[in-house]
């Protein structure tokens, strides 16, 4: 099964990236939908990006979490510490 479209993948169209099975056509940048290859992609949190958008999204916020729409790890740590102090 293709991890992107959840349909069967036949051997001739199968590719594996980050241990995920995909169709060749489903292996594309999340941001611009450009078709990717094993030699020109980056991934974060199980999502694939072309190199230029991966760098652009990182530069937008200066870190990988906020740039890609996730909470920063330090915010998660602060919440855990607040919960431990109040108990």
UniProtKB/TrEMBL annotation:
<keyword id="KW-0862">Zinc</keyword>
<dbReference type="GO" id="GO:0046872">
    <property type="term" value="F:metal ion binding"/>
</dbReference>
<protein>
    <recommendedName>
        <fullName>LIM zinc-binding domain-containing protein</fullName>
    </recommendedName>
</protein>
<dbReference type="InterPro" id="IPR001781">
    <property type="entry name" value="Znf_LIM"/>
</dbReference>
<dbReference type="Pfam" id="PF00412">
    <property type="entry name" value="LIM"/>
</dbReference>
<keyword id="KW-0440">LIM domain</keyword>
<feature type="domain" description="LIM zinc-binding">
    <location>
        <begin position="1"/>
        <end position="60"/>
    </location>
</feature>
<keyword id="KW-0479">Metal-binding</keyword>
């Amino acid at each position: 099964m293709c991890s992107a479209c959840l349909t069967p993948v036949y051997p001739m169209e199968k590719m594996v990236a980050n241990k995920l099975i995909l169709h060749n056509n489903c292996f594309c940048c999340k941001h611009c939908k450009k078709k990717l290859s094993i030699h020109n992609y980056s991934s974060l949190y199980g999502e694939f990006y072309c190199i230029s958008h991966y760098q652009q999204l990182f530069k937008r916020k200066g870190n990988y979490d906020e740039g890609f729409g996730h909470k920063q790890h330090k915010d998660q740590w602060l919440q855990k510490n607040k919960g431990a102090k109040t108990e």
